[in-house]
Hints:
It is built from 3 helices and 20 strands. It has an 18-stranded antiparallel barrel. The protein has one domain: Beta Barrel (Porin), CATH 2.40.160. The chain is mainly β. The protein starts with a helix and ends with a strand. Strand 2 and strand 3 form a beta hairpin.
Amino acid sequence: MPTLKTKIMKPTLKTLSAGALVLAALEQAHAQYTPPPPPTPFQGFINEFFRAKDPYMNQWDIAGQFRFRYENRQGYGIPGIPGSVDFRAQNAKVDNDYYLTRTRLHVGYTEKWWSAYVEGQASTDNNDARFAYPNIPAVPGTFQRKGNGPEADLIDLHQGYVTIGNHKEFPLSAKVGRQELSYGEERLIGAFNWNNIGRSFDAAKVRWQTEWFGADFFSGRPVIPQDGQFDLSNDYDLLSGVYATSMKIPKNIFDLYFLARNSTRHANSAEPNPQFPQPTARDIYTVGGRLKSKPGEFGGWDYSVEGAYQFGDFAPSTTAARLTQNAYMFVAQGGYTFTDLWSTPRLGLEFDYGSGDNNPTDGTHGTFENLFPTNHKFYGSMDFVSLQNIQDAGINLTCKPTPRMSAALMGNALWLANTHDFFYNAAGGPRTAGGYGINPGYNSFLGTELTAITGYAVTRFAQVEVGYSHFFTGKYIEQSLAGVGGATDANFFYVQTSVNF
């Protein structure tokens, strides 16, 4: 006979399990741009067909997505082409347009105490002038490859894992295998879904769900995309940590995390020609937290604040000595949603700060390590910067003109946090060539970016999205490129269509 404690525990765990499922939706409440929901729920054509015939087929999940995106970039450096750097006005190619396709097909099966999931992926990159692996600066043991571009990975395994556990019955569960890792707003660890390949890890994760909090304990190695070969994880690059979330603070969501990234001297040459550059040696430890308002708890107001500190060591190049890591970041954002106005507009403000290095010769590395982020969601949609040596003041206006449409206008003003450090790109690499470098005498203002995005749910299974951005160069960029013919503004235009099946 169940005890009183058991009777109380089971509904509590059911409630906790349901709460865990809606956390992802809560995380999107304050996003700068969120695609519109489908007009009616869609489970996928295959799922709907089989589930209509047999209710036991609800245990199966067979579905997928095809995504097409055309991108036109003007004023962008093209990796692999000599002299081509961001915002260069002349004497080098800085215009590139191409189209990307990505197809994902997954099969999942769920039992009471276990489940399994497999997801294949095919990514193509067409007419792209970027080298698949530019190898600049050159890494011993690797070689430059033009290939089909950096976002091509023809056929591969994106995810494949097994889960054991049932939070309705027991507070612990485990997930083992190739999987996406995504926490908070993805500022430090994200699935990088904007990218045509995305990001996954060969990892093991244990989740502990209680009445007071849910916590993930995980350890894994990032998968290295390689076009034409089966993707393997980097045996010399390890991400571990614990990420805990509590909803017990009234009207707020509170996150607390500790993350460790440990990479050896062999990490950046683990594969001879990866689609993404691999890291130099480092042992960096990040401790941080985030407080975020729950939707609707403060009327039309919302806010979030996040901060993190890093310690450990970092090697800036393949052969350089390790420096003591001493870096930090913080983010503050808030907004107001006018629920009584047409299209329910939300006006938001944001400030992001990622520390830079004050003195490259003092044995300390003060540049914040951005880890594994989805930077496209923040700091401007043109993907020029990461949360490293940066100050970003942003304003955004989002609205829903119709239930099927979402729109956003976003502006970002950017400064270097410290002119004694480099101007880092979205992938976290320092700009060191074509006029860029460490220029402490230059003005710290990088420029401003304006973006407009509109998305429309055409049907319950298809969406289209259009975006345009313009970057107005500031004093730092103009001073950096004055010796190579001057600077030019940059433009970015894209059209994206997604079809679920």
